[in-house]
Design brief:
single chain, mainly beta, Neuraminidase, four-stranded antiparallel beta sheet, 1 helix, 26 strands
Length: 289
């Protein structure tokens, strides 16, 4: 499985905490930025900072109109950054309380926005070192935010299969991926571990991405590893770098390029994004259509 992808090189330079990567079909990348907002990386490697309130940006999503949705993990906010640079606050409270550590935002295949909140514990690192089940999952509806799941130990990235049968959530505090059945009324069924539980002893899972064969790619930060979990739950280690010589704290993974076989890995510690080529294409996401 080590031949599943081949290293191409680095993308960008002097990036500020490129934790999350959005890969566009033309190989333009948009990455998180600790200054607030995002950094846009053109195919020629040039970088432009697009500022936005909300402190350190963690997760990113793009809507069909080109607007970016930004998760502010330090401020507990969700902002919308439009192509013309104007900004609006989408969410900063749920049921009269502050959100907590907003980790990730993601559009499902139907175009609805999901928001993961890792924890309300301060500092949030406590919910990684000792699993604390105060993470939760919201869906932003026309009538406001709707609670979809709770009791999660550090909710991280979320993904959906193309048939919208299941939601997959990285539960970092327990080192595993959770799978929820999507019910006909739009709610989520009870969660079940998908793949090894945990991925391995001491694992901390973070980023997720599907390929077109139904494999779920998972980043793991203690061994600087990338795993692939097959449809049947069998996990394969595609790459690991315990000494951090190439990858240091892989926090997200994204498929891009015209054929979606370009793989980009983001990190909270590196000042660049790593670029690989995969033998299998990534599944299309909302902003690819």
């Amino acid at each position: 499985m080590e031949s599943a992808f081949t290293l191409i090189g680095r993308v960008g330079e002097a990036l500020r905490r490129p934790e999350c990567v959005l890969a566009m079909p033309d190989d333009t990348l948009v990455v998180s930025d600790s200054r607030g907002g995002v950094t846009q990386i053109s195919p020629d490697g040039s970088c432009i900072h697009r500022p936005c309130p909300g402190g350190t940006t963690n997760g990113l999503a793009q809507d069909h109109d080109g607007s970016l949705i930004l998760a502010g993990i330090d401020t507990g906010t969700v902002h919308k950054l439009r192509p013309d640079g104007t900004v609006s606050l989408l969410l900063d409270q749920y049921e009269g309380e502050t959100l907590g550590a907003v980790n990730f935002v993601h559009f499902d295949p139907a175009g609805e926005l999901w928001i993961t909140i890792s924890t309300r514990t301060v500092p949030r690192s406590r919910a990684i070192n000792t699993p604390i089940p105060d993470g939760y999952l919201l869906k932003l509806t026309a009538s406001g935010p709707r609670l979809m799941a709770s009791g999660i130990c550090f909710a991280n990235e979320i993904r959906f299969d193309t048939g919208m049968q299941y939601a997959y959530l990285a539960e970092s505090g327990r080192g595993r991926v959770l799978r929820f059945a999507l019910q006909p009324d739009g709610t989520l069924g009870a969660s079940r571990p998908f793949g090894p539980d945990p991925l391995f002893p001491g694992a901390v899972v973070d980023g997720l991405a599907f390929d077109t064969e139904g494999g779920l790619w998972v980043t793991e930060v203690t061994r600087n590893a990338i795993y692939r979990i097959d449809r049947d739950g069998t996990a394969h280690c595609l790459f690991e770098d315990p000494e951090g010589k190439l990858i240091d704290f892989p926090a997200s993974i994204a498929f891009g390029g015209l054929d979606r076989k370009s793989v980009f890995v983001g990190s909270i510690r590196m000042n660049h994004v790593l670029h690989f080529r995969s033998v299998v294409a990534g599944a299309p996401m909302w902003h690819h259509h």
